[in-house]
Amino acid sequence: MVAITSDGWAFVPDGADVHLIPPDTHDEDLPVRSEVVTGYQPQIDPDIQMLGGRGGPVNPHSRRPVVNWKPGEHLDLGDLIGARVKRGAPDLDRWRLEAIGRDGDYRAWFFETQEAARAALDLLERRVVRAPKDEDGDPRPPGPEDFDEARRLDEETERALDESEE
Protein backbone atom coordinates (compact mmCIF):
# COMPACT_ATOMS: atom_id res chain seq x y z
CA MET A 1 0.00 0.00 0.00
CA VAL A 2 1.18 3.52 -0.80
CA ALA A 3 0.03 6.39 1.42
CA ILE A 4 -0.34 9.81 -0.24
CA THR A 5 -0.16 13.08 1.71
CA SER A 6 -2.51 16.01 1.14
CA ASP A 7 0.14 17.71 -0.98
CA GLY A 8 0.88 14.60 -3.05
CA TRP A 9 3.96 13.04 -1.42
CA ALA A 10 3.92 9.23 -1.53
CA PHE A 11 5.18 6.99 1.29
CA VAL A 12 6.57 3.98 -0.59
CA PRO A 13 8.34 0.86 0.72
CA ASP A 14 11.91 0.74 -0.59
CA GLY A 15 13.68 -2.46 0.40
CA ALA A 16 13.82 -2.37 4.19
CA ASP A 17 13.32 1.42 4.26
CA VAL A 18 10.77 4.05 3.18
CA HIS A 19 11.08 6.42 0.24
CA LEU A 20 9.12 9.68 0.21
CA ILE A 21 8.45 10.54 -3.41
CA PRO A 22 7.48 14.12 -4.26
CA PRO A 23 4.32 14.77 -6.25
CA ASP A 24 6.13 16.07 -9.31
CA THR A 25 9.56 14.86 -10.35
CA HIS A 26 10.15 17.03 -13.39
CA ASP A 27 13.70 17.84 -14.42
CA GLU A 28 13.79 21.03 -12.32
CA ASP A 29 13.88 18.80 -9.22
CA LEU A 30 17.10 17.14 -10.34
CA PRO A 31 20.25 18.35 -8.60
CA VAL A 32 22.38 20.75 -10.61
CA ARG A 33 26.08 20.04 -10.81
CA SER A 34 28.11 23.20 -11.24
CA GLU A 35 31.16 23.05 -13.50
CA VAL A 36 33.01 25.19 -10.95
CA VAL A 37 32.29 22.71 -8.14
CA THR A 38 32.79 19.47 -10.04
CA GLY A 39 35.38 20.44 -12.64
CA TYR A 40 33.25 18.47 -15.09
CA GLN A 41 32.01 20.05 -18.26
CA PRO A 42 28.73 18.43 -19.20
CA GLN A 43 28.67 17.09 -22.72
CA ILE A 44 24.94 17.14 -23.36
CA ASP A 45 22.83 19.53 -21.32
CA PRO A 46 24.64 22.44 -19.63
CA ASP A 47 21.60 23.48 -17.60
CA ILE A 48 20.83 20.27 -15.77
CA GLN A 49 24.03 18.34 -16.65
CA MET A 50 22.15 15.19 -17.55
CA LEU A 51 23.59 12.60 -19.84
CA GLY A 52 21.25 12.80 -22.78
CA GLY A 53 18.76 14.69 -20.62
CA ARG A 54 17.47 11.43 -19.08
CA GLY A 55 17.89 9.44 -15.91
CA GLY A 56 19.73 10.94 -12.95
CA PRO A 57 22.64 13.29 -12.49
CA VAL A 58 26.01 12.45 -13.98
CA ASN A 59 28.93 11.37 -11.79
CA PRO A 60 31.65 13.96 -12.52
CA HIS A 61 34.43 11.39 -12.13
CA SER A 62 33.12 8.52 -14.23
CA ARG A 63 30.86 10.66 -16.46
CA ARG A 64 28.22 7.97 -16.12
CA PRO A 65 24.66 8.39 -14.81
CA VAL A 66 24.26 8.03 -11.05
CA VAL A 67 21.94 5.04 -11.04
CA ASN A 68 20.93 5.04 -7.39
CA TRP A 69 19.83 8.68 -7.21
CA LYS A 70 16.13 9.12 -6.51
CA PRO A 71 14.14 12.32 -6.08
CA GLY A 72 12.54 12.90 -2.71
CA GLU A 73 13.66 11.69 0.68
CA HIS A 74 14.80 8.32 1.93
CA LEU A 75 14.13 7.26 5.53
CA ASP A 76 16.31 4.53 6.98
CA LEU A 77 15.93 2.42 10.10
CA GLY A 78 16.44 4.64 13.14
CA ASP A 79 15.92 7.98 11.38
CA LEU A 80 12.82 8.45 13.55
CA ILE A 81 12.45 7.60 17.25
CA GLY A 82 8.67 7.89 17.37
CA ALA A 83 5.60 8.58 15.25
CA ARG A 84 1.89 9.00 15.83
CA VAL A 85 -1.32 9.95 14.02
CA LYS A 86 -3.58 12.61 15.43
CA ARG A 87 -6.47 14.75 14.31
CA GLY A 88 -5.29 17.83 12.47
CA ALA A 89 -6.00 21.46 13.19
CA PRO A 90 -9.40 22.82 12.10
CA ASP A 91 -9.34 24.35 8.60
CA LEU A 92 -5.67 23.40 8.15
CA ASP A 93 -5.24 19.64 7.89
CA ARG A 94 -7.59 16.74 8.47
CA TRP A 95 -5.10 14.17 9.78
CA ARG A 96 -1.51 14.63 10.81
CA LEU A 97 1.31 12.09 11.02
CA GLU A 98 3.81 13.48 13.51
CA ALA A 99 7.29 12.10 14.03
CA ILE A 100 10.37 12.84 16.07
CA GLY A 101 13.78 12.38 14.45
CA ARG A 102 16.78 10.83 16.17
CA ASP A 103 18.02 14.33 17.06
CA GLY A 104 14.67 15.36 18.53
CA ASP A 105 13.55 17.23 15.40
CA TYR A 106 9.83 17.46 14.74
CA ARG A 107 8.39 16.21 11.46
CA ALA A 108 4.79 16.32 10.24
CA TRP A 109 2.93 15.15 7.15
CA PHE A 110 -0.71 15.96 6.46
CA PHE A 111 -3.34 13.57 5.10
CA GLU A 112 -6.93 13.86 3.92
CA THR A 113 -8.00 10.58 5.49
CA GLN A 114 -7.24 8.77 8.70
CA GLU A 115 -6.68 5.56 6.71
CA ALA A 116 -3.89 7.14 4.63
CA ALA A 117 -2.22 8.60 7.72
CA ARG A 118 -2.40 5.24 9.49
CA ALA A 119 -1.00 3.42 6.45
CA ALA A 120 1.99 5.80 6.42
CA LEU A 121 2.40 5.35 10.20
CA ASP A 122 2.34 1.56 9.84
CA LEU A 123 5.00 1.73 7.14
CA LEU A 124 7.21 3.99 9.26
CA GLU A 125 6.76 1.91 12.41
CA ARG A 126 7.73 -1.30 10.62
CA ARG A 127 10.70 0.08 8.70
CA VAL A 128 12.01 3.34 10.17
CA VAL A 129 10.99 4.08 13.76
CA ARG A 130 13.27 2.83 16.54
CA ALA A 131 12.61 4.12 20.04
CA PRO A 132 15.62 5.03 22.19
CA LYS A 133 16.46 2.69 25.03
CA ASP A 134 16.17 3.54 28.71
CA GLU A 135 18.82 2.83 31.37
CA ASP A 136 17.70 -0.83 31.51
CA GLY A 137 18.02 -1.27 27.76
CA ASP A 138 14.27 -1.34 27.15
CA PRO A 139 12.74 0.75 24.34
CA ARG A 140 11.24 4.03 25.61
CA PRO A 141 8.99 5.46 22.91
CA PRO A 142 8.35 9.19 23.11
CA GLY A 143 5.17 10.20 24.92
CA PRO A 144 2.70 12.96 24.11
CA GLU A 145 4.78 15.48 26.05
CA ASP A 146 7.83 14.65 23.89
CA PHE A 147 5.85 15.32 20.70
CA ASP A 148 4.48 18.57 22.16
CA GLU A 149 7.97 19.75 23.14
CA ALA A 150 9.47 18.84 19.75
CA ARG A 151 6.68 20.73 18.01
CA ARG A 152 7.08 23.74 20.32
CA LEU A 153 10.82 23.88 19.59
CA ASP A 154 10.16 23.57 15.86
CA GLU A 155 7.65 26.44 15.93
CA GLU A 156 10.02 28.54 18.05
CA THR A 157 12.83 27.98 15.55
CA GLU A 158 10.54 28.90 12.64
CA ARG A 159 9.55 32.17 14.39
CA ALA A 160 13.18 33.04 15.09
CA LEU A 161 14.11 32.39 11.45
CA ASP A 162 11.19 34.49 10.23
CA GLU A 163 12.23 37.35 12.54
CA SER A 164 15.86 37.18 11.38
CA GLU A 165 14.75 37.52 7.73
CA GLU A 166 12.85 40.73 8.47
What features would you describe in this structure?
This protein has about 170 residues and is an alpha+beta fold. It has two domains: about 5-20 and about 80-165, Roll (PH-domain like); about 30-70, no CATH class. About 25% of the residues lie in helices and about 20% in strands. The protein has three helices and seven strands; from the N terminus they run βββαββββαα. It has helices spanning about 35-40, 115-125, 145-165; strands at about 5, 10-15, 15-20, 75, 80-85, 95-100, 105-110. It has a four-stranded antiparallel beta sheet with strand order 1-2-3-4. A three-stranded antiparallel beta sheet has the order 5-6-7. Strand 1 and strand 2 form a beta hairpin. The longest helix is centred in the last third of the chain and has 22 residues, at about 145-165. The radius of gyration is 19 Å and the shape is globular. It starts with a strand and ends with a helix.
